[in-house]
Amino acid sequence: MVDDEYLENPDPWIAAKPEAIKGRGAVSNIAGRYETQLIEVVDDGWLPFRDDTDINPALKTHSLKSTVTPELAKSILTRNESPDLPFSVTLNSYRGCEHGCIYCFARPTHAYLGLSPGLDFETRLYAKTNAPELLRRELAHPHYQVSPIAFGMNTDAYQPCERELKITRRCLEVLHECNHPLGMITKSALIERDIDVLQDMTAKNLVTVAITITTLDHNISRTLEPRAASPSRRLQTIEKLTRAGIPVLVSVAPVIPFVTEQELEKVMQAAANAGAVAAGYTVLRLPWEVNPLFQQWLQTHFPERAERVMNRIRDMRGGKDYDSNFATRMRGEGLWADMIRQRFAKALKRYGLDKSGRFAQLDCSQFRKPLSIPAAKKTDGQLDIFG
Q1: For 196-225, what is the mean pLDDT?
Q2: Closest by CA position to 154, among listed 226, 77, 209, 84
Q3: Which of 92, 76, 54 minimizes the C-alpha distance to 139?
Q4: What angle is formed at CA 268 by the lines to CA 267 and CA 272, rounded to 5 degrees?
Q5: Is-cis flag, bond preceding 254, omega within 30?
Q6: Residue 372: its pLDDT value, please?
Q7: CA distance 323 to 333
Q8: Model confidence, pTM
Q9: Got the DSSP string for 80-143?
Q10: Distance between first and last Cα of the chain
Q11: Which of 45, 205, 221, 292 is most enclosed, with most CB atoms within 10 A?
C-alpha cells in the first residue's frame, strides 16, 4: 500500500539548507569541479538538531577543527604572465587558508588536491615545510633572474598556523640575507612580528607592504573573513608599521556591492588616519567554485539583498557572474564599475593616499647569491640507486 504522505509529496528527499558555522566562511563543502561524484546533504527529518520551527543553536556553534599537513614541495617560486598583476613571481608557504574569507579567489585551487574549495579549503591546510631551503636553492641557481617576490597572493602568508611554523619568517630571512626585493599583502597582525626584518629591508628599498581592509563593520567581517584580524586590529597594524618607517598601502578588496561598497571612502579615510600612504582596490571576483560558495553565503547572511547584490555584480561583468578578461576582471566594466572608479580616485586625493612615489620600483641591483645552499631533500620516498 502506498503511503498517502508519499502521494502528496513524491520527492521527500529535500536538500538540507546550508547553515552558518561559527568561525568559518563557507557554509558547505561543495564538490570541486574535477569530482566525478556529487554528494548532497538531505534533510530526511531525522537530524537531531533540526526542528520544523527553529534551528537549534548547537548548529551555529558547531566548529570544525583545522588540520595542518606537512608537505615537501618540489619548487617554491611560481611565475605568471598576467598583464593586470604588478608582480610576476610569487611565493606561497601554505595551501588553503584558515582565515576563511568567503570571496577568496584561491579557493578553487583546493580542487586540484581532490578536496572541496568550501570548508576543506579553510580547515584542511598544507604547510610547505621545506620552503626556505627551496627558496635558497632557487636563488642560488646560475640562471636566476631577480624580480620582486610577492608573498600572500594566493593564501595569506601570515595565517594562524604561521605563528608556530614560522615558514614565512624563515623565507623572509633568506631574502633579507640576499638583499632580494619583495612585496607582502596580508590581513593578519602577525606581520608585526617581522617588523625588525621589514624595517631593515625598507631602508634599502627592498620591500612594500599592503594591508587588506574590506570593511570596518565587525559584524560583516566576522562572517565575511571570520578568522582574519578584526578591522580595528588591522588599522593598529598599519599604525605600527608606519611608526617603524615602513610605508603601507591599504588594499580595499574586494568591493562587494550592497555589502561593503558603501564603506569604500570610510575604509580609505580610516587607513589614511592610521598612516597608510597609498591605496588600491578590486571589485569582487567569482571564478569557478567561488561563485556558488559566495551565493550560498549571501543567502545565509543577507537573504534580503542577495538578488540585488548578484544583479549589480552582473551589471559590472557584462551580464555574467564573472568575466576573466584581463582588461576588466579586477575593476569590472560598465556604469557601476565607472562610479566606483571615480569614487576611489576622488578619495585618493581627499585622504592623501596618492603618494605613489613612496612605492617606487624596488631595487633589484643589491641582490647577492645566498652564502650557503642546503642539500636537496627527497620528496617521494624513492631510494637512491647508489646508496
Answers
A1: 97
A2: 77
A3: 76
A4: 120
A5: yes
A6: 73
A7: 10
A8: 0.87
A9: ---TT-S-SEEE-SEES-TT--TT-TTGGGGGGGTS-TTHHHHHEEEEETTHHHHHHHHHHSTT
A10: 73
A11: 221
